[in-house]
Design brief:
This protein has about 290 residues and is α+β, with helices and mostly antiparallel strands. It has helices spanning about 5-15, 20-25, 70-85, 220-225, 260-275; strands at about 45, 50-55, 60-65, 95, 100-105, 125, 135-140, 140-145, 150-155, 170, 180, 195, 210-215, 235-240, 255, 290. The chain has a single domain, classed as Cyclophilin (Beta Barrel), CATH 2.40.100.10. The protein contains 5 helices and 16 strands. An 8-stranded antiparallel sheet has the order 4-5-12-11-13-3-2-14. The chain has a 5-stranded antiparallel sheet with strand order 6-10-9-8-7. A 3-stranded antiparallel sheet has the order 1-15-16, with no helix packed on it. The radius of gyration is 19 Å and the shape is globular. The protein starts with 6 loop residues before the first helix and ends with a strand. About 40% of the residues are buried. The model is unreliable at about 5-25 (pLDDT under 50). This is peptidylprolyl isomerase. Keywords: Isomerase, Rotamase, Signal. GO terms for molecular function: peptidyl-prolyl cis-trans isomerase activity.
């Protein structure tokens, strides 16, 4: 029987020092600063329909952009299972306030998975000059930025010439909305279960694979019924579909701010000026439209 997943992460969440939580809540609010002019047509991008997951829950719709650059094996697993309607009807069986919503288990207990082999850990990935990485902060030996909608920390590309493959290590940041691959104690035990972040938790970085991010419906993520385990009736994913697999007549139109755009660069500058030393990529909002 599969061991319950995400125990270490849940324990880290429950044991987070109260002072750290209070400090994060005391940071300056970027909503207090006058907003900039909105983006223009050139600032938007249309994500690959094969990399967009549409999760219809009993609480509303969640639209998630999968990022194969960060976790190609788990993205492929989720895509395959979604195309087979594997996830339809699965519940959110473990949901912790200010932490995450866990789902994707056919047993709805944390002990199940698909019949496919487990997926090796993808806690970091290799970033090269060809990677579409947009820098938000250069910290000399490390860089913070975005790959599509995913916030990422990376070693500085100045180190690339000294590595065998000409690349550096990078990893996803577990900001609100980021999707992670749940696993058991073994680092190579991810299978079908995943979790969606209700809040940011840096302690998960480089310990769990970040494979996507919610671009619409974070309010739904936070509305899912809380519990460990969640008492009946549990909220559920009624349908989980890859955008490309939805019939054209009912397929939502999705667009997201391009991190390479002039508008997004200005937004990063605005947030950094507001936050100062407290700046985090988690503070930068990436607008999306779903129609």
């Amino acid at each position: 029987m599969r061991a319950k997943l995400l125990l270490a992460a849940a324990f880290a969440a429950l044991c987070l020092p109260a002072a750290a939580t209070a400090q994060s809540r005391a940071k300056p609010s970027i909503t207090d600063v006058p907003k900039r002019p909105g983006p223009v047509a050139a600032d938007w991008r249309t994500p690959d329909a094969n990399d967009v997951l549409v999760i219809d829950t009993n609480k509303g719709r969640i639209v998630l952009e999968m990022i194969p650059e960060a976790a190609p094996l788990f993205v492929q697993r989720v895509r395959e299972l979604a195309l087979e309607h594997f996830y339809d009807g699965h519940t959110f069986f473990r949901v912790i306030e200010d932490f995450m919503d866990q789902t994707g288990d056919p047993l709805n207990t944390g002990e199940g998975g698909s019949t496919r082999p487990d997926v090796p850990g993808e806690f970091t990935f290799r970033r090269g000059p060809e990677t579409a990485f947009v820098t938000a902060a250069d910290q000399s030996i490390a860089e913070v930025g975005f790959i599509k909608s995913l916030p990422v920390m990376s070693q500085s590309m100045m180190l690339a010439p000294m590595t065998r493959d000409g690349k550096v290590s990078a990893w996803g940041l577990f900001c609100p909305g980021v999707a992670g691959a749940a696993r058991a104690e073994s680092p190579d035990s991810a299978n079908s279960q995943f979790f969606l972040m209700r809040a940011g938790y840096p302690s998960l970085e480089k310990r769990y694979a970040a494979w996507g991010r919610v671009i619409s419906g974070q309010d739904v993520v936070r509305a899912i019924k809380v519990g460990e385990p969640v008492a009946d009736p549990q909220d559920r994913m009624e349908r989980v579909r890859v955008l490309a697999d939805i019939p054209a007549a009912e397929r939502p139109k999705v667009r997201v701010i391009d991190p390479k755009s002039a508008w997004f660069k200005g937004e990063i500058d605005r947030v950094r000026a507001t936050k100062g030393a407290d700046f985090s990529a988690c503070d930068v909002n990436i607008p999306a439209e779903v129609k």
